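Notes to self after the Tuesday call (sharing in case useful).
The group wants a holo model before anyone commits to mutagenesis around the pocket. I volunteered. Ligand is zinc ion. Logging inputs and output together so the record is complete.
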Amino acid sequence: MRTETPAPIRLADYTPPAFLVDEVHLDFDLKPEATRVRARLSLRRNGAAGAPLKLDGERLKTLSVAVDGRVLGPGEFTADDHSLTIPGVPDAFALETEVEINPAANKALEGLYMSGGRFCTQCEAEGFRTLTWYPDRPDVLARFTVRMTADDAWPRLLSNGNLVETGRGPDGRRYAVWNDPFPKPCYLFALVAGELDELVDSFVTASGRKVELKIYVDPGMSARAAYAMDALKRSMRWDEEAFGREYDLDLFMIVAVRDFNFGAMENKGLNIFNSSLLLADPETATDLDYERIESVVAHEYFHNWTGNRITCRDWFQLCLKEGLTVFRDQSFSADMRGEAVQRIKDVKALRARQFAEDQGPLAHPVRPSSYLKIDNFYTATIYEKGAEVIRMLKALIGAEAFRKGMDLYFERWDGCATTVEAFIACFAEVSGQDLSAFFAWYEQAGTPRVRLASRWTPETGELEITLTQRTPATPGQADKRALPVPVRLGLLDAEGRTMAFTRDGEAQDETLVV
Ligand code: SER
Ligand code: ZN
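Result:
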């Protein structure tokens, strides 16, 4: 029996990375049972002088470690089950490591594994450390170049960014080299190798750049990806129109795999999907299947800006990319399919999944303050409630200020790893509103119960409305603060027609109460 309790990780303990990585070169020699991974990292000290280099790694068989071209002897580093430590490193240097991993034995569907005979990866949140020694944290952003070599059984060799080169090596095996010019955290790294059919299309961005679109599926299945391709093009256009966001690489790829823990994953330029959320057979697919494909394709695509170009400083900020991206995909679906119907669906899902979570032992804030394993926090609270909080923010400051705040966020934080505070600060700045009370939505768990009481005085024609709020206690948070809940109110007459009224002397037919 295992009795040791893992130590919780706390938001309050965050410290910046001790070393940054500018460039990464990865070389994968792909074999199902013994894949060799050679990594060359250009490292730069970011913390205390003289501190040792410490990298994350799990289930790695370390074959060699070299600093600035010099292979280290066994006494010059320590490698255990979780970390590689090298004392006495310079302030800027190149680290080369070679490890062996076993994708065929990896049944966790995290890291590099085999699905339907193909190689594929899932690195969010902390799977990259099972591929190579690395500072596996989202605030280390590096430019990746990836080379992979495989036998002819794996003819398509895909990774992030742009394809630089393909060919056959001296041993006759196939290779491909990919380069991603956008610095990214390692959780957005992806690799796929195998036999796949390709559905090809293209998209011309608002500024006139042509982007190649490719969807990779099981042989014979490409016709089933036609709807996903259509949804992708509509998502790309919508993000330009609704948020002013253009796609940035020359190529955008989606791969459907059969074994996948998440629904899908937003790896830069190479989204990976569970096939069930990408492929539709017109003979059997229902309307609901099409809706889900459309919204997940949009969600993953929208991550390119909210998640990839701007990422999270640490995993406590998960809602910064997820809540915001769900809000964006819900807004997209509302525009595609009708606002009222979409809203009813989203509210039903929220009540069924998130309200239940809030009432149970696992209730947690949209931004938790501690965790044991971040994998347990991909929850309805982070995603769906995270989206509702953004929706309330938009209601509070108005659509115009909301868009300005988003523009400022994209401008200020592009290429960075940031926090929920930095995000909210953009909206406070553009709206001139003090959003400090609103921030409690991120820190307080539980579903507030709002009651509305009204008193009508026929003599004066006055209607007095009082809103009261109570939030039941949740584990670890007995006392709750009152939260700003923007409520839009209007009056209807007996025939259901909108009635005009005055509030504080101002004529209106709808009013916002906070
Ligand atoms: N980051 C992934 C997504 O939200 C994991 O689910 O799409
Ligand atoms: Zn997401």
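Two things stood out.
Helices lie at 226-243, 287-302, 318-337, 339-358, 380-397, 399-413, 420-431, 440-443.
The chain has a mean pLDDT of 97.
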